What we know:
- This protein has helices at residues 9-18, 23-41, 49-65, 107-114, 157-165, 181-187, 220-230, 258-264, 284-299, 313-326, 328-336, 345-360, 363-381, 425-428, 459-472, and strands spanning 44-47, 76-80, 118-123, 135-136, 140-141, 170-174, 190-193, 213-217, 270-273, 303-306, 386-390, 407-409, 412-414, 434-441, 447-454.
- It is α/β, with parallel strands linked by helices.
- The protein has a single domain, classed as Amidase signature (AS) enzymes, CATH 3.90.1300.
- The radius of gyration is 21 Å and the shape is globular.
Amino acid sequence: MTELHYLDAATALRLFRTRELSPVELMEAVIARTEAVNVEVNALTETLFEEARPAARKAAAKYARGRDITPLLGLPVAAKEKHGLKGRTLSQGLVARKEELAAEDHPVIGRIRRAGGIIHARTTTPEYSCATVTHSPLWGVTRNPWNLQFSPGGSSGGSGAALAAGLAPLATASDIAGSTRLPASFTGTVGYKAPYGRIPGVAPLSADHYRGDGPMARTVADTVLLANVMAGRHRGDHTSLADAPGIGVPGLETHDGGSSVAAASVAGMRIALCIRLGNYPVAPDVEANTRAVAAALQDAGAVVEEIELPWTTESISRTMFTHFGYLLGPAMEDETEGSTELLAPYTRRFMADARRAAEGNRFVDGIRAETRLQAELAAAMAGFDALVCPASAVAALDADGMYLDGIDAGGQQLEHYWQGHMTAPFNIANRCPVLAVPSGMADCGIPTGVQIVGHPYDDAAVFTVGAAVEAVRPWAARRPGILAMA
């Protein structure tokens, strides 16, 4: 039987409606779990239990009346710290800004609250969400619940760790180069990088076409649930899209037989498999798990064909940092002026790399490289409904790692640790939706994940394939053993 703190959101909502479970009971279970295990995992910047408990009681009263039932009513939701809550600190992990307060709710927070979700905790990030590990001088080291030696990834590492540890059924995340998909991959959870504009952000970086905010959860159905709440036009984000599609995926609405419906939904779909995206040095266990996913989809009736792409880790890294050199890097320098001595070494390294790339490449050079990559991806995906590839070439990162001198990828030393991750190409091609789902276990004892990449704005396709992967390679019942006795 599923422990209450690991109950999925869709099931919880069904039980709330039938009054077999109260939002108060679920909230208390999540709070108890947090108090028992978060000291080891360190996934949270703060808890809001004093606000969450009365909110859960109000939700229970609405279910009792049978009125005013909103899509997330009574569900605990962990919010990434960068998603500001009005009147609460908004530090972005920076020591120099630890006393700053958010003037208003972030758009995704406002939508979660209006949908009845209860923000009960806030999750850790690296400084300015600029790393694929999650530690900072302000909050310390966040650890992977599956193996505390390793990182849950970053920058939404606190959200991934909270979900995997049973501290929340839903969490918010963001992604500018993999910050949702990498934590999902390393923690055995599900993360969605929506196509650019689908989910609103905050100016001025909402205008950055690499970035996006989105949902994380433990199941595909729960990720769809939160994505549908977050999506749609917002007056504060000129780039946000009016057409929130209301994603629905076969099998996700059912509880009896839903897995078979989800698996059957990929029959006849054409899926491209790309193991290395060019020359990424993919670890053998990551490759084996990715191929197992492809084989399972083929057994479910999909037509799977292996393809290659003409990319190199070096060119992708250069393209990405050229972009950062004209947007995120200067924004970070503005925000940290006069306090750089307080920054983590990885933050200073990120800004230096971005500055150096901008000095060596014009903005138009970066745009040319981006559009070339986008055209190559479109050509490779022609005739396919979706593409499946690993999320990370390396299976794990050390929890407190800095990786200032690059990263060892199976004996091959890569110049920059970003070259060990396979997510950034799909921020360069950021109109493509991408869903990260678990693929198996790495030899080191933490999960691995695959990315499911769709054509521009074809959100439904990636969720259809993701639901099928979840059905043919069930994952939800697996739990981090290291916390089992907590």
